[in-house]
Structures are given as C-alpha cells and as structure tokens.
Amino acid sequence: MIKKIFKIITIILIVLFTVVLVSFILLSSRVGERFVQRFIITQLEQTTHRKVALRDLRTNIVSNIVINDFEIAARDSISPVLAVGRLGIRYNLFALLQKRISIEQLAIDSLRINLILDKAGRLDFPFLDQESAVADTTGAKAGLPLNIRIDECSLRRTYLSYNETLTPLETTVRNLNLVTSFIGGKLNEYMIESDEVRFDYRDTRLQANELHLHGLWSVDRLSVDSLSTMVEGL
Length: 234
Hints:
The structure is a single chain. By secondary structure, the protein is α+β, with helices and mostly antiparallel strands. It is built from three helices and ten strands.
C-alpha cells in the first residue's frame, strides 16, 4: 500500500516537472516570446484605449524580461505620449509563492514622456485619464496582497515635457538620469542628474543646467545630502 502511494506521488511529481519544463521551454522560445508580446499589447490597448507598439521582447520567463522600442500613442494622435527605448526587468519569480513581488533590477533607457493639459483641463496620459481608469478589484477580492520590493531602479537618457495649452506653461527636462538602490531597512539611496531643467511661462524662462542631486529616501522620508546646479542669470 505504501509503495503504491509513493509510486503515485512519484508519477505526479514527474508529470508536474515535465509540464513546468515544457512550459518554460515554450515561453522562452521565439513563439513564446511573441505570445507574451501580443498579450502585453492587447492588455495595454484594452486598458488605455490607445494604440500600443512593441517592436521586440526577449525573456526566459523565470528571471528576466527585456522590451525594446515600446510606445503608447496620444489620445487623438499617432505620435507617442510615452516611449521607451529599452526596458529591462530582472526579478525573482519564486517570490510570488510568498506573496511578494521581488524585482532585483529595473532599468529604463531612453524614456520619453510628453504630457499635455488641454484647454478642457484633460491630461493626455495613459493610466491617468478617465478613459484608461478601469477598475480592477480582482486582487482585492482574492485577498492576496502582494509586497513589492525593488532592489535597484535606474533611468537613463530620459526626456520629460509638460505643456499647459491654456496658461501657457511649458516644462522640459533633458537627459535625466536617475539611480535608486535599496541599502537596508526601509532606506534607499538615490542620485539624480540632468543636463537641463527649463520652465517657460509666457515671456519668462527659468533654466537650470548640470543638475546633481543625491540623498536618501523611504516611504515617509526624503533627505538631500548634496545639491548642485547652474542657473542662468545667477
């Protein structure tokens, strides 16, 4: 009787291992990568009600995913309101078994965000406007709160712009680089650099060049250890 039970358990474990192995091989192949790519595009288009483009995706499912040339179009235009040259995520998939999302490294290169507040007071940006504010209570109903931890996050060669057509106000940040890393407890270290930060309001311009900012942050605390910049006219 005991031998039969062990035999059944052994067969079940072999089947489970085979299923996991086959799934891993399929999802790590180009066919699997295209499936994941198509799934991401479909979900984002349904959520944001905008055109989404994603040129290339590479992943081995278990530990990392890399996305190249990702764009989300503006509300009434084919020009992108958000674009990413390269997004790389290295994670620990098995942390989900402990109800945790563990991201070891999040690296974003060549991010471009163009925010426009129109005359009606609508902000044209996905996930922030009413069209893409789709309620999702699945996690709450399931009662499975997840703890999220990101060990290291970096932004490279980022361009940000914010325009108000009614005011008019224009804000531009060029070549922004940001690195933040977990150092223990609840504390994280951050470093911010930017070639140019510019504010234009009617005929007035305030511009800061070679911005350098360094310090520590947590959920309820932000400290600045060093700050340096060059401001025109000062």
